[in-house]
Specification:
Layout: E1 2-6, H1 18-26, E2 29-32, H2 35-44, E3 52-54, H3 60-72, E4 76-79, H4 93-101, E5 105-109, H5 114-122, E6 129-133, H6 139-150, E7 155-160, H7 165-176, E8 181-186, E9 194-199, H8 200-205, E10 216-220, H9 231-243, H10 248-259, H11 263-271
Helix pairs in contact: 3-4, 6-7, 9-10, 9-11, 10-11
The structure holds S-adenosylmethionine.
Length: about 280
Amino acid sequence: MTLVLVGTPIGNLEDLPPRAVRTLAEADVVLCEDTRRTGRLLQAAGVSAKKLIAVHDHNEAGQIGMVLDRLRNGELVAVVSDAGMPGLSDPGERLVRAAADEGFEVQVVPGPSAAVTGLVASGLPTGRFVFEGFLPRSGSGRTERLAALADERRTMVLYEAPHRIVRTLTDLASALGGDRRVALARELTKLHEETWRGTLAEALVRAGDIEPRGEYVVVVDGADAPPVAGDDELAAAVARLVSEGCSTRDAVAEVANVYGVPKRRVYELATGRPA
Ligand code: SAM
């Protein structure tokens, strides 16, 4: 009948609201990543024995048929993940899509999410932000993502595992520059919760002190707005690049990118001809 995504604590068991407990108690079945872990959570919340079914990244697609059958039979199907909001860097997204496509009601019982918790703890601008989750682990996927983030103006929120945090800070510093402000939010809502704030370069100086345990949310400041340039400045910038050996076409593209203005305008200013 209804698919309900239920947020669960990201560390502190007190962060399980009454509505989440009631929904888990009423559900006919609870889909979870790890049945033992969720079993312990339910026990701590006083929810008596439930039918728990493992749905994780590796079998989510294969479990869709079973979930749709249960919804057709009128069941209330709850989805939780190991921690935080299901569907966000955790299983759930595909189930929601499949249930919604079949016309079933989808509800959410919201709970904590490390992304939003880390963002608001960071002290960086929250007005516009982009969730990046885990960066691709290696290869061109990682390089291209980092290059794309260099010009991102919104605050960026990333997840990272503790043993990869220094590698990721190193790569962020080389792609975005060491001056970029960053916040490392660790063990949120837990006993050893801490949020360190500084620049990427400063973070790397203290890389040796970075605690290789615990989970991290990395929040990175967006790129500065491109400088506001007048017509003379744009034309001079193109002329300078051309005098250094750049083709007019490449110089126009570079200047348009740096100043954040249309290529057509730069071309017309630099050449005196319509683009
Ligand atoms: N769906 C979850 C959510 O909404 O927060 C995120 C799941 S993702 C698989 C796990 C990642 O979230 C961790 O590697 C870490 O980056 C971040 N995370 C989870 N709990 C955290 C905590 N208590 N403190 C800091 N980061 C946490």
